[in-house]
Structure formats: structure tokens, C-alpha cells
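so my prof wants the structure for this chain in the C-alpha cells format not the other one, which i didnt know existed until like an hour ago. anyway here's the sequence
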Amino acid sequence: MTTKSTHTAASKFLTYIWILIATAGLVAKYDKMPKIETWVLDTAMINHEGVKCNQSGLEMLWVTNHKLARKQKHHKPNILIVLRLLLLLAGDIEMNPGPTVKYPCGQCNKAVRLDSVACDTCDRWYHRKCLGMRKNIFLNLGDASWHCLNCALPNVTAFLDSTVDVHETRFDSLRDISTSESLESSVNFHPSPTKCSSPKKRTTNTTKRHHRKPVKINIINFQSINNKKADLLNLIESDKPDVIAGSETWLNSSVSSSEIFPQNYNVYRSDRTNGSHGGGALLAITNELVTERIETKKDLEAVFIKTGTQKGKPPLIIGSIYRPTNRDLDYTLSLCETIEKIQKKYKKASIWLCGDFNLPDICWHTHSIKGHQYPKELNQRFLDMMHTCGLSQMVDQPTRESNILDLFFTNRPALMLKCSVEPGLSDHHIVAAENRLVAQRRKPLPRKIFLWKRADYSKLKQEVTALENTMLEKFDRNTHINEIWNFFTKEIKSIQDRCVPSKIASVRFHQPWITTDIKRLSRSKRKAFRKAKLTNRPSDWDRYKDIKKKTRQLSKHTYHQFLNDLMTEESGEHPQIYNKRFWSYIKSRLSENIGISTLKDRFGNSVTDSKSKSSLLNDQFTSVFVQKSPHHSLEKAEYPSMERFEITTEGVKKLLSNLKTHKAPGPDGLTPQLLKSVAEEVAPILRFIYETSLDQGEIPDDWRHANVSPIFKKGDRERAENYRPVSLTSVACKIMEHILSSQINRHLEKHGILCNSQHGFRQRRSCETQLVSTITDFIGTIENKGQCDVILLDFSKAFDKVSHDLLLNKLIRYGVNTQTHKWISSFLNNRTQQVVVDGVSSERSEVSSGVPQGSVLGPLLFLLFINDLPSYTKHSSIRLFADDCVLYKQITSDDDRNKLQDDLNGLLQWEDDWKMQFHPEKCVQLSITLKKKPMETNYTMRSHQLEKVSSAKYLGITISSNLSWSPHIEDITSKAFSKLAFLQRNISHCPRKTKTLAYQSLIRPKLEYSVGIWDPHTKKDISRLEAVQRKAARFVTGDFGRDSSVTNMLDDLEWPPLQRRRKELKLTLFHKAYHNEVDVPIPLDTNTRGPAHKFLIPSSRTNHHLYSFYPSTVRMWNVLPGEAVTSDTADKFKATLKCRQLE
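here's what i got, hopefully its the right format
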């Protein structure tokens, strides 16, 4: 067996034979010299400079550059002498041949030199330059400290003196001890340094050595990051920094970080909040690093994060700071105090502070104050803070003109690999730094991706058809459903693997628009910058600025052209593909990049790794579950039993064909793409499975399990309770849920089981139908000079607290038959879930209550559970939209107030009876009236007094106490302008069709949501709404000229005024109510003397009633011709309105 050592020896021998031939040729040149008979080797010593052989009569020197020098005194060497020397070089003296370096550097693994240091703790040696240690620090180690890269502990001694020779090799055994006594006596070796070639087991550090990837940071002054998006992406693509510390971002809360940075960066921002322009700081951290934000004062333009290093080592603190160019000493004092508090809290941590500090008066080489631009106290406070925290400033070159403004402070200067100045994105240069610190990094999880474009569909369908025949022969209705399902999933996955190619991919982010021309110009820019710095000639600086300008122009043009091509609909392209591409881009810019933030557990400890996050969220989600209720007597059926139904192959096929292929699969791994691709072939198999499951009253175990995806709601991202669970369940199970849901709904509608107050998740009902009924009641109170007290109720975790036993009891009451009831019981009981964060799952937990959010059957089951809630009220009106509940009553006396409180107590009784829970702190009361002195009442829930408000939001509409719609219009127009600004930042260079689609999809629907309720009649509110569309017209046409006619733009775009569109929408809703297409009653009398479709216009005392939905719409309705009114569809009705003048 050939070993590594024999390979090494053989390669050495061949090398020395080659040297022998070359040496022989050199020696042959001296054939006129006398020969020597003997060669006596007195001493041979090898060091890093070469080989030197001493002998009486000859001294030969062989240096490392492979030049052979010869110095003759009396004799000439022969070939035998050279051969003996080379054979001596080829021999291995040590028992275990290995690397020749005995004391390697712990960073570069090369032999330590004269200026080297060793760690007092782990005995590792390092070159001074490998540590980034300055020479003055090296010569004064007794007064300064350095940190070991292996153990990260501080050292102040153990530097290697210039008289020490540590380059010991295999020739040490041949050294003449007597001739080197003076040398050895001056050597003071550090105890037991690590020896790489030692055959003995290492005892100092037996842990596996990790690849030391340095942490890269770019410190950038942006001066408006929005204008430099393309340049920033180009920089990220070329440098791939781990950290970007930005200052002068000029951002505000309306700008999402995902508009600027790629998705593989988590961005922490501190925007200027005092209303003035400019300022701001940010930290963009690659999502490989595990980070946590450190909270500081809100008025500081500074952001600090903490990231983990090697396990068991102190963390790294990174701060990005912008100090405005003012003489505000208080701001500086507050900033320095914050930094000192952070340093005191994390004493052992490595600290990086970077940003634009605007301190040109300080000379950082001498730490003295030279200038007078800012008060001396301000500059001195920064110097005091730097010395107090033990920080060193690493930037030694100007970053703007001749001043060093952008700084990098660290308390571990020995760990710095690089700190240089590079070409910037503004008039400030970029500070690029690298550090040896080993940061804690996440490893991206590989994913298996099926390449459906290359699938063999004919083979796929053929094999699924064969699977159907196999299953029908192998199984019957008596076979347990688990056995059938497990066989099906195993076989169909195997078929998918055979017929659909796949690849293993990990998430990689790159910018496809960056061309070779951009890369070439970027390299030229860097070269020109370095040359300009070196020569400082104006001509070189002009050349650099010219190349920088060209690079920016080309980057912007290429980036915008890429977006233009991306958003352009290709000829013959299916509209669905284009819409999907459009919405994918828009959603990627709207969503924040931060993902699941660092969480806090109940003790306030930070949770950063994905496994712990998923476990913490899972604990939070399961904590709201209610325990199983004690045995209740079975309810008696109050309604006729639900009829039996048949599952058809055609029905299953139709549901499969409507699957959305981009949706995620459930725990069983069956994707919608697979099932939809073989819908016709797999439908008979699934029909057999569904019928067997229904007959047995059992579901497969896979259908009981859910992968839960946590979705952030609002509030503090670090609190687990601010996330809601969305369950990803089996796609095949959802098809079965659709079948059952439609059958149960048919039973409920047939017998009128659901209460009339409920408008959620029901056919012919919506938020708008709920609001029409509710607001009409409020307006009626105002019209009668009354007062209406409204209580808006909020359930606490309503969907998660539904008791399974109590729900199943209610299903019996509502006539759900035994077969379906048994299936739903199996669907609800013995469920499990696990939370998935970044591909890492928590442990499975039992789901003891609740209906799965994200399932098809869940919302319907919740409606049935909450259906009897209105029966607990006697005097007041109640409206429901799923779990959104509003209770109200007209108040004319104290007795009315007491009745409303009694009904509120009745709802609390329902809460106790059915183990649900309201959230009193989030429940509010609102008094709707035009009275100057309304009747004041304090309503309570379990001794908690409800908060009184002057306006409240209900189903997306802002309802004020006087029913003025100006606050609502102000709210939606403000959001519309903000969304329009978003479109201008992101798709301003896209085609007109794309911008039109964006406006009509993202902005106009917000301006027209439930317009029948709040359609304004004042010129002020009408003009405010029209201003949004006028600005959108300029954006779509790209014409922002002052002299341009917006009216002509609107005509060219064929956009009617929003006021006309509101009239059309109100008439369309009335048309649907007239033809019973929506469940909106028409409480009006018909005109007996005219056409049958005309109604009597009710009289109005107030403008609230005059311009409300029914009176205002009937006035337009009555003038419509009969053919328009009798149109059998809403589309035909809309078409007839286009050519008519509306009042």
C-alpha cells in the first residue's frame, strides 16, 4: 500500500535528480580547476534563506532564488560531492515525515519569523503582519495588548525577540551544539508551541478547524440611497460585503428596505424623525450572519446590532452612525454616552463603530485637535469616549477631499486585515475593511427543485394511469385509509422522480443585469482612483471622475432597461404569465427582507438560531389552545339532517384543474403542480381515496399534520405573540375539504341555519354588504336626531380557541349527518403541527383546539361555532364578519344604556359558555351623534372600562363620531400617494402598459373600496381624490411639465373621473341587489304610478342621509332606461352605463 509519506519522498527524490542534472551542468563549466579528493562536511545549517556548506578549501552558497554562486580558494568540487549533498537533502530525519515547518503561524501556516508572537493561553504563534499589528505595538507589548485569533483572549507578552531563530528543520540534528551555544543561550522559546509535524496527539486544541472567512464591511456615505440603487447593487455584486454601514440615507418610513437591497440582506435602519430632509443611518447585514438589534435612543441617527462569533466566544457589536453637520453638543454627548453604555454592557465583545462622524478638526494620527470648525468640547468628548472604550481609529486616508470624515473604530485593531479607501457612490469615498473575526454564519439549506419545463408528461400520465389500475386491483373499500394513502403517495412520488428532472439548489443572489461592460468600467474606475490617490494630479482626478460618471450612467441605463424588458409583455405571451412576473416583482419590493426577526423569550433572552425560533413560536401558538372540555351532553338536532352526497370523478378533476401551481405543498410533499399536471389521470384515484375516507370516517395521518408558517401582524417583531400561524396542509386534503364545504354550505343555505347578522365567508355577502347595512342604521339614528352607542369587540385568538368537542356538539344541532360528522371529528382530533423557520422545523406539538388557519374547512367551521352569538343579545343590534363583531343601540334614555350594557354582559356569558375570550383592552366604544352634548356612558367588560374614541376603523373604513367621511378620505389618499411614490421609485422606466396596470391594480381599488358607503359630496373631498388620479396620469405618461395638460393626459389614457366611476359602482351594487345577486335589502317603496323598476326617493333632513347609499343611488337609478335596469348580468349593465350621462 502506497502511503502519503512514500509519495512525498518519491517526489522529493525526482526533484533533486533534476537539480543534480542542472548542478552538474554548472559545475562542468569549471573543468580547468583542480579536483578535490575528499569532502569533509563540518557543519550544515538550513534556514529560510537557503543552504550554506562550509568545507576546508571550498565555500558554496545556494540561495533560494535558485542561483548557484561559487567561491573557490584552492580546489574544485566534483560531481560526487554534489550528489552526496543532494542525497543528504532528500533524506527525512524525523520519524513522521510531514511539513517542514515546526512552529507555523496560526493564520497563514507558514514558518514564524523574527517578528512573531505566541499566545499565553493556547501556545499558537502568529506573524505580526498576519495579526495586522503595527510595529510600535509589537515593540511595546508590555504596555499594549493583542488578541489571539484561536481563543480570542488578550495577551500582553510572549513576543519573539530578533535574536531568536525558530525556523528549526530536519537539519537541527546535524547542528554542532558547541558552535551554537551562544545562540541557544539567548533564545527564550515560548513553552511548547504547537508543532505541526509532531506524530504525537495534539493536546492544545483538538477541535476541528473551521474555514476562517473574514468579515467584510463597506462604510458608505450615500447622500440619498434612492438615487444610487444601481450603483449599490453593482458594488454588492462585485465586493459581496457581509456588512454595509450606511450614512446619509435620506430615507423615511414610506420607503421599504426591500426596494433597495437584495433579498439576502437584513436591513436595520434609523431614519431621521424630526421632519427635516437628509440624515439617517443603516446597517445591511447578509442573512448568513445571525444578528440582533440593540435598542438605543430614538432621536439618534445611529443603529447598533449584535452578531454571534464562534461558539462560546464574545459577540461582535457593530454600529453605524451619522453625526449631522451641526454644532449641537447635546447630540454628541448623547451619542457618546450611548456608545459607552453599550461598551460597558458588552465588556468582552469586539466593537466596530463606523459611519460619517463629521469630525475634520481631529488629527487621528496624534489624537489631537487641529481645527476649529466645531467646538473644542465636542471634539474632546469624542476623543475621551474613544480612550474610555479602548477604541482605535483605523482610517488613515482622506475620505472626502482632504478630510477624514468617514471613520472606523474598533477595540481589536490586531484583528484587522485591511482598511482601505475605495471609490465612493457620492462625494465621500468608501471605507472597505476586512477582519479576521470568525462570525457565526448560517448555512443555506439545499432544496430539491423539479424542472417541470423538461418533464416527460406523456410518460407521467401513462404511469399514473397504470397506478390507478394497480390500486383498484390491490385495494378495496375495506382497506384502511392509511394503507391506501401511504401506497399512493409513495408510488406517485416515485413516478414524479422518474418523469420530472430535478436539481439540488441553494439560494443564490446575483444581479443578472450587470454586464461585462459594467464590470470592465468598474475595474477601470478602481484603477483610476488608485492612480489619482497616488499622484494627486488634477488630470488623474478628472479622469477618475469621468470614468465614475460613465459607470453610473451605464449602470442606471442597463438596470432600467432590464426592468423594462422584465415588465414588457412579449408577443404571444399568455397574460397570466405576464401578470405573475409583474406581481412577483412588485411583491418582492413591497415585502421587508428581515424575515423572522430575533425573538425574545419570556425571560427577555434573545433567540437567534432558526431551531430555537421555531420552537419558541410553536410554544406561543400552542399556548393559546384550550384544553378539552369536560363531557357535555350531546345536542339534539334542531334542523333536518344533511343529505348524503356523491363524490364524482368530474368534480374532483375540476377542483384539481383549478389548483394554483405556485402554492406550497403540505407535509406529504405532494405539490399542486404534480396533481394539476395529471388531473384527469389522478382524479379517479383520489375519488376512490375520498370515498373510502368518508365511508370509514377516518382521514390519513398525513392530513392531520400541518407545517405552520409564522406571519408577522404588527407591533414589535421581537415578540412571538405578534405573529399569527398559517397552516400548510395536504393539497389532496384541501380538495376533500372543498367537496365537504360545498355540501355543508348547500345544507346551511337550504335551511337558513346561519344567522342573518353574519356576512363573512358566505356567498352573496361581503364586507361591502355588511357595511351598507350597518352604516345605514347609523345614518338613520342621526336623521332622527338621536345617538347611537357602538361597541367594537375584538376576540383574542378566536380561530385557535375553538373547542373541538363543543364544535362537534354544535354540528349535531345544525343537522350535519353522521358520516360527515365522523369525518370532521377525525379531521379535528389528534392533530399535530410544527413551525418551520428558514427551513428548520420545531418538534411536533398536539393541537388541542382551534380550526386550522389556512385550511378550506376551517372558516366554515368557525362560522358554525359562532353562529349562536347573536342569540345572547335581546335589545341591541349585532353585526358579524367572521370574528369581527360590532354591537350597537340607539340611546334615548338611561334605560337604553343599561340595555346595551346587559347585552354586552350577554356576550360575556357566551364567552364563558363556549370557552372563547374577548380582548377587553382592544375593545372600544364610539358614540355616533350630531348632538353638542351627547349622553356619556362608561361601558365595562369584566370590570374593565372600555376606551372611548372619536373615530374607529371597522372592516377597513374609518367611522367618525359625526359620520364625516373626510378622515377616511384623508387616510386613503395619503396611502395612495405613498403607494404612487413607491411605483415612481421602482417602475418609472417601465412601459406605459405596465404602469397603467400598476395604478389600476394597486392604487385605484383602494380609492374605490366600499364607495357606496362613503361617496363624498363636498368639493374638497372630491378634489382630494381626483388629485391622486391626476398625479398618476403624469406618472404613467411620464410628463411632469408645468405647462402640460393633465386633462389631455386623462383623455389619452381613457380614464374617466373617479367621481363618475363611484356613481357607476354604486349603481352596479344596486343592480346586483335589485336582481338578488347580493344579499343587500332595498328598504324602499316602488313608485306605483311609474315603471316597476323605479323607487320612491325618501325625504332627507340631513346631508348625511341625502348623500347616503340608498337616496343618492335611487335618484340615478330612476332615470335609467328599462333595458339597462333589466340587464341580466352586471357586465351588461356596466356596458349600458358607459354611454350615459349620470347625475
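also thought this was worth mentioning. Residues 808 and 825 are 7 Å apart (CA to CA).
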